[in-house]
Amino acid sequence: MAEEKVYNISLREAFKKDRIARANYAVTIVEDYLKTHTKKDDIKMGRHLNSLIWSRGPKKPPRAVRVKAVIDKDTVKVEILGKEYEDFIAQKVKKKEKFLEQLKARMGAKAEQKAEEAKMAEEGKTADEVKEELAKEEDKVTTDEVKKAVKKAAEKEVVRKEARSASDSSTKALKKANENKK
Fold first, then answer.
1. List of residues 6+ apart from 125 with CB closer than 8 A
2. pTM of the predicted structure, to 2 decimals
């Protein structure tokens, strides 16, 4: 059968440590206190207790904590008084993007162009040759775009001419019909 006890743990000693190490030491104080008073080595802190200690950051833990300890055979589960015990599960750290990926995201097309230049440089080409190839590629792109634009314009012109001829022929037919009526 599990035994429940309530403890009021002072964390004043944590404030004698370095500013950035205070919350870490406060956790250690809670664990040590419970080890001495329950005579158990396996101490499990609850999620709410952990978040309370770290709520104001690593520099300012609370001065005291009132906790409820549930003592089983070999383990002690500790949580803030008034809360049910919930396991503390550390969240996985998101993988950071590599430096090159961040640069590419910021630089966009320039970064890709630099990467192409670097690849060509690895192949043994000089900087001038690389620049000439890139210029040729850009010219190809622009000439292709110009050709497409010319085709579209020609198609539009053909459509216009057909529309004009159709309207001209219809107006001529109307004129002839009007003349015949007279």
1. 133
2. 0.50
Give how far Cα 182 sits from Cα of 44, 136, 175, Å: 110, 69, 11
Tokens of 159: 């459509």
Please write the tens of the pLDDT for every residue from 21-36: 999 999 999 999 999 9
Q: Are 121 and 127 in contact (CB under 8 A)?
A: yes
CA–CA separation, 157 vs 113, rounded Å?
Answer: 38
Distance between CA atoms of 78 and 122, rounded to whole angstroms?
Answer: 60
Using one digit for the tens of pLDDT, what is the confidence trace for 123-170? 766 666 767 776 777 666 667 777 777 787 777 777 777 767 766 666
Q: Which amino acid is at 54?
A: W
| 11-14-20-23 Cα dihedral, nearest 10 degrees | -30
Sign of CA dihedral 31, 37, 41, 47: negative
